[in-house]
Every structure is written in C-alpha cells, then in structure tokens.
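This part of the workshop introduces the protein records we will be handling. A record pairs a protein's sequence with a compact description of its fold. Comparing a sequence with its tokens is the quickest way to learn the format. The record below serves as our worked example for the rest of this section:
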Amino acid sequence: MSSDQPHHQMQIRDTTNPLVIVVSGPSGVGKDAILNRMKERKYPFLFVTTVTTRCKRKNENNGEDYHFISFAKFQELLKNNGLLESANVYGNWYGVPKEPVKEALAKGKTTIIKVDVQGAANIKKIIPNAVYIFIKPPSLEELGTRLKQRCTETDSDLSLRLKMAETEMQQIDNFDYAVLNPSNNIERAIQDILCIVTAEKCRVNTKRIIL
C-alpha cells in the first residue's frame, strides 16, 4: 500500500499514565517524515521540537522542524539545566528542551521525542522507563539512496553519515522496539508506532515518569 492510498487511522486510548516515547534511528531513515505525518493527523501527543545551532535548510520551518537558535542561547539553556539532553552531531549542537516534556507529563499527555542514537542513550540515563523505538531502514544501501535523494549533504558528509549509520545500527539492542520504515510505505511504520503506544498504555505494571 502506498502512502497516498486510504488507510485505517488507529485511535489512541487515553489513560492517566502518560508515556515518554523516544524515537531514534540513523540519519535519513525517515524519522521526520513519519512524525510529520502523525502531526498532520493530530494524534493526541506532544511532539517535542528539538533546539539546534545548525543552519536552517531551505525546506524547514523554524519552530516546527527545529527551534534554530544561536550558540550563545544554547549555552544559556545548558547552564540553566533547561535541556533534557544535548549532543554535538557533525559539528552542530542539538538539545531536547525539558520544560515542554514536564508540562505534558503534568497534563497526562504522552510525549514523543525525536533524537539521534547518541541522544537516545543520554535520555535513557535520565528517563530509563521511557519507551525507546529504533526506526530502521530496509538496508544500508537503501539508506544511502535516501540520503542522496535528500540532496542536503556533500559527498564527504554523505560518506560520514553512512559510516555513522553502520555504528548506530549496532546499538539497536539498547532499544525496546525496532520499527521498519519501508520504501514507499510510511503507513506501516506509523501503524507500528501506534500499536506500540497502545500496548504500552495497556501494561499492568507501569512506573510513573518524574522529571
């Protein structure tokens, strides 16, 4: 089924036990595409927007794809303990703001955080009982094709990202779930994530997340 074909939209059962869902995976695997489609459908989650010091790409919107901030502003957030995690990736700083996550948990709302694999490992030290989902490509060759089609990296950057992806794929055992993002079938990945959320909400023994 292609992503343009009709699909069955799963309803998410709300509970008083909000989750923190951490979505990760190698660069170019399709994390943004998956989450953007979920945002469009207005699923009842808070999608946390990462802050970054890198330059905005031509197809990105400030405040939606990322909060693009100065290095000085980033350092201020770090100093004030305003970031849940931070990492330097390919020479740019990325961080997950803590306050939106705390507010969502207080309101009983499930939060979805998108980070790279290094960021997921950092968050796991702080929130070990969050749900960790690894988005994986059908193959590294397919991942390389997706990165080339994105046309946002130089040849040297592309080579670096593919080498990094090989290392990141080896970290998959540190996650709770692995979700395949097939070519031309983003719906499968979305439905798998929604099934994971539903299953986690139905757990008998859950621990309340406190930040």
Remarks:
- The beta strands are 20-24, 45-47, 51-52, 67-68, 83-89, 92-97, 110-114, 131-136, 177-180.
